[in-house]
Write a structure and sequence with these properties.
Layout lengths: L2 E4 L22 E2 L28 E4 L2 H11 L2 E2 L2 E3 L10 H16 L4 E5 L2 H10 L9 E6 L7 H4 L6 H13 L4 E4 L10 H14 L3 E4 L6 H12 L7 H8 L19 H17 L3 E4 L24 E3 L5 E3 L31 H4 L1
Parallel strand pairs: 1-3, 2-5, 5-6, 6-7, 7-8, 8-9, 9-10
Antiparallel strand pairs: 4-11, 11-12
The protein binds iron/sulfur cluster (2 copies).
One iron/sulfur cluster binds next to loops.
């Protein structure tokens, strides 16, 4: 696919857009290496590809992200954990994307900041460690790998990403280096992927050394659900379509008539049932489990500091010597502030400002 470079005009550092009322995610620094949807993996149900402003026919890379990021880091006094990337896979097999990702990672290591990378690229994850071996001992990061369907159904859910078995092998290798790992099984396209298949994925993730599982049934707009069902319709699994339609309230016959703003999500009772089973399954293997967004914290494993599950991604604050130091908090200001009256970050506003404004961090 054609690769283009572009200057990012706005701030690099930004939070999830969700307001306080709808919020479950901790404060996070999202880093977009590319424009939204510029991902060679082309998963049909991908929300990042389905925004009206997304670009899908080429990879548009923000070449100035590393320099801009360093300038912004120098001005901040508080930094929540970083996340690469919400809008495309930062380790997708496009050398120009990885080059920027690696530069960003080196900057985060230089300033000793917390981060995680989420990928579907087995080879990309290994390439990351081989390129930046200091990550093996770096204490403030983890890798998340998405394994969203059993191997035989990957042709539908992530046809151009690494094979599912290759993802398990990569996790095993990273685990042998001692790198902390999170497995994401989401989104599960219920009706197409069944609960016993997700249980199988959880077992395989546990065998591969993952410590925490994040799951969801997903949240789709007409474009992402339409793409997904069209793909299923052309496959040997087309008899699953009525079940998927029923679970998510979508009708393939009305593919061009769903209101653009309509969202498709499984019912609350179905979500509760699904996540209760999966949490039990994860805990059977001594893993922890959390639900991405679609249910409150009471459905996550008990005792988690945040839904990220791994106790490594701390908020860092800058001291008078200009260096960043971790504090005992994962930026989940709504649920897990260590001291609501005198927060150790020194910025009480973070308990109510969702998303945070960059000037609050400065
Ligand atoms: S890997 Fe992630 S960002 Fe890329 S297309 Fe798939 S879901 Fe979207
Ligand atoms: S100390 Fe409290 S207010 Fe400050 S970042 Fe942590 S959770 Fe949020």
């Amino acid at each position: 696919m054609k690769v283009e470079f572009k200057e990012l005009k706005g701030n690099v550092i930004h939070d999830f857009p969700y307001p306080k009322e709808k919020r479950k995610c901790p404060h996070t620094v999202l880093i977009s290496i590319t424009h939204s949807g510029c991902c060679i993996h082309k998963c049909p149900m991908c929300y990042a590809r389905a925004y009206p402003w997304s670009i899908e026919d080429r990879i548009v890379i923000y070449k100035n992200v590393p320099e801009k990021l360093e300038t912004e880091i120098k001005k901040t006094k508080i930094l929540p954990p970083f996340y690469l990337s919400q809008v495309s896979d930062a380790l997708q097999p496009v050398s120009e994307v990885r080059e920027i990702t690696f530069k960003v990672v080196r900057i985060l290591i230089k300033y000793k900041l917390s981060f995680h990378i989420l990928t579907k690229s087995a080879e990309g994850a290994i390439n990351l460690i081989e390129t930046i071996p200091e990550l093996i001992k770096y204490p403030y990061w983890y890798l998340g790998m998405t394994v969203e369907s059993p191997p035989e159904k990957q042709a539908i859910t992530s046809p151009y990403a690494s094979e599912i078995e290759a993802r398990f092998r990569a996790l095993k290798k990273l685990n042998s280096y001692g790198i902390p790992l999170v497995g994401r099984t989401d989104p599960t396209i219920l009706g197409f992927v069944e609960i016993p298949e997700v249980c199988y994925l959880i077992k395989r993730l546990a065998d591969a050394g993952v410590q925490h599982i994040i799951g969801s049934l997903g949240y789709y707009n007409p474009l992402s659900m339409g793409r997904l069902l069209k793909k299923i319709e052309l496959s040997k699994w087309k008899e699953c379509i009525p079940d998927v339609e029923k679970i998510y309230g979508y009708h393939l016959d009305s593919i061009d008539n769903h209101p653009k703003r309509k969202r498709f999500i499984a019912s609350v009772s179905r979500r509760i049932k699904f996540h209760s089973i999966l949490r039990k399954e994860a805990e059977k293997y001594k893993l922890t489990y959390s639900v991405c967004l679609e249910l409150s914290r009471e459905y996550d494993s008990k005792g988690l500091l945040s839904c990220e599950g791994i106790y490594r991604n701390f908020v860092h604050i800058k001291k008078v010597n200009g260096k960043f130091y971790p504090i005992n908090c994962c930026a989940d200001c709504l649920s897990s502030c260590p001291d609501k009256i005198n927060p150790p970050c020194g910025e009480k506003k973070l308990q109510s400002e969702y998303p945070y404004r960059l000037k609050t961090l400065n």
